C-alpha cells in the first residue's frame, strides 16, 4: 500500500460503530467482504432495520437477501438495529421533510442513527448532501473508505483490496465519489490490461 | 414538513389506499397496530391522527416506505378498486393481483416524476368507441384503420408501437417481468390516464400483440380494466372485438393482401420462408401472421396446425434467414428517462427511486449507468 491509498480512505482506527446505508451494504455484499471489513476494522457494523428491509436480494446471485443478512448476523459480521425513540424522532423528521430534502426510509434511518452515534457509511449523494448540510457532527464514510482502509491493505494486501473494489464496481455498480475516480479508473484499467496479457 | 402538519384526513386516505393496495382488510391492519377496527377506521377517515409508531408499523405491513406515505409529492391511486369492481374480479389469482399492484405503483411513480420535473404527459385521447351489434371483424378492421389514419400510419408496418402509443396517444406503457400466465394489464384512471403493464418474460412479438390488444381496450372499453392471461379464450364479445382489433391494427388487411400478392404475383407459391418474412415485416409472430392469412382466406384454414404437425421449426428457420426478434421500442422507457433526470437533479435519492419503481438497488444503478454521463444533461441554448 502506498501513501496515496492511505490518504484517500478517511476511516480511522477508532472502535465506535458505523451505521451502514443500503447504498454501501449492496457494494460490500457484491464484493463478498462484509465479514472481512468487519474483521479488519474491528468495529461494529450496524444496519438499521429499515436498511435490512431494502436488501431484498444478494447482488451476486439474486438469492434471498434476508437469508444472507441472517447469516451475516449469526456470524457477527453485522448487527441489525431497531431505532430508539430519539432516533425515530430524527427519522420522521428526515422522511417528512419538504421535497427535495426528504429521504427514503433506509437513508433516513441510517442518518438518524448517525446523528446520535456519530458514524455513517453512505454513498447515496442526496443523503450525503443533507448530512453534510444539516448534520455536520456526523462522520460520513463511503464504501471506498471501508474497502480501502489502511487496515484492509495491512491485513489482506493490495490484490485482495483491489479485487473487492472491482467486484463492488462491476457487480454492485458502486458509485464512485469524485476524489476516488482516478484511483478506481486506473485499478479497473489494470484489470483490463492483465486480462489481455 | 412534520407529520403533525399533514391533514389527518389526507394521511388517513393515503393509509387506506396503501392498505387496499396491499390487499389487506381493516381487521388485519387494526390487529397489527394493536387497535380496534373502529379505531383503524377512524384513522383512515381522519377522525383520529395516526401515531408515529402506528404509522411505522402500518407502513411495514403494507410494504410501503414511511417516506412514500408522508412525501407531499407522492401520488396515491387505487387502480385495484377498478379491478375489484369490474368483470375481471373473478380472474384474480395472486399472479394477477401482484401485477395489478405493480401497475398501480408504476403509474403513481410516473405521475409523481412528471409532476416534479414539470413534464406532464400530453393527453390526446381519441374518443371511446361503442361496439355495435353485427359482425365484429369489419368493425374491428374499420376502427383499426381509423386509428391508423388518426396517427398518420397509413398501412405501413408499425416500427415502434410503444413510442406511438405513449407519445401520440398519451398511454403510459410499462414493462416488467411478470408471472408467465399474465401477458399484460390495462387500466384507466382519471388521475393517471390509461396505462398498461406488459410482461417482458414473453417473446417480443407477443409483447407487441399484447400492447395492441390493450390498445383495443383503451379504444372501446376504457373504463373496464383488463388482465390478459396467456392462452386466454375470448370469453366475451368485447374480448373478441379487442383481439380482432389488435390483429387488424398490426396487420391491416389491405397491407397484408398487398404483400401476399407481391409474393405470389408471378404464379409463385407461398412458402414458409415468405410467411416468416411477412411476419417479420409486420413485427408479429409466425403464428399470428399465419392465422391472419387464414382469416383473410389467403391460406387454407388449419395451415398453422399443419405446419406444426409437419414439425416445421420456426426458430431454426428464423435463424437460417437471419431474422431477429423485433424491437418492442427503439428508445429507453419514458419512466426510466424521467427517473434518471430526477436522480441527476437530486430530486429523489436511490432509495426513493427504488421504492417508487419497484427496482432493487443494482437494477436502478444499471439504468442510471446506461443512460449516459453528465454531459447529456448540459443545458443547450434555445433560440428565442
Please name the defining characteristics of this protein.
heterodimer, A: alpha/beta, five-stranded parallel beta sheet, 5 strands, disordered N terminus, B: 384 residues, alpha+beta, four-stranded mixed beta sheet, 19 helices, 54% helix
Secondary-structure blueprint:
The complex is a heterodimer of chains A (197) and B (384).
Chain A: H1 3-8, E1 18-20, H2 22-30, H3 34-41, E2 45-48, H4 49-54, H5 65-74, E3 79-81, H6 85-95, H7 105-117, E4 119-121, H8 125-134, E5 139-141, H9 143-147, H10 150-170, H11 181-196
Parallel strand pairs in A: 1-2, 1-4, 2-3, 4-5
Helix pairs in contact in A: 2-10, 6-7
Chain B: H1 8-21, H2 26-33, H3 37-45, H4 52-61, H5 66-70, H6 79-85, H7 94-117, H8 136-150, H9 161-169, E1 172-176, E2 182-189, E3 193-199, H10 204-220, E4 226-229, H11 237-250, H12 253-264, H13 272-282, H14 286-295, H15 303-309, H16 314-321, H17 334-344, H18 350-357, H19 361-370
Parallel strand pairs in B: 1-3
Antiparallel strand pairs in B: 2-3, 2-4
Write up this protein.
The complex is a heterodimer of chains A (197) and B (384). Helices cover 58% and strands 8% of the residues of chain A. Chain A has 197 residues and is an alpha/beta fold. In chain A, strands 3-2-1-4-5 form a 5-stranded parallel sheet. With 384 residues, chain B is α+β, with helices and mostly antiparallel strands. Chain B has 19 helices and 4 strands. Chain B has a 4-stranded mixed sheet with strand order 1-3-2-4, with helices on both faces. In chain B, helix 7 crosses helix 17. The model of chain B is unreliable at 87-91 (pLDDT under 50). At the A-B interface, helix 2, helix 6, helix 7 and helix 8 of A face helix 4, helix 5, helix 18 and helix 19 of B.
The gist of it:
Chain A has helices at residues 3-8, 22-30, 34-41, 49-54, 65-74, 85-95, 105-117, 125-134, 143-147, 150-170, 181-196; strands spanning 18-20, 45-48, 79-81, 119-121, 139-141.
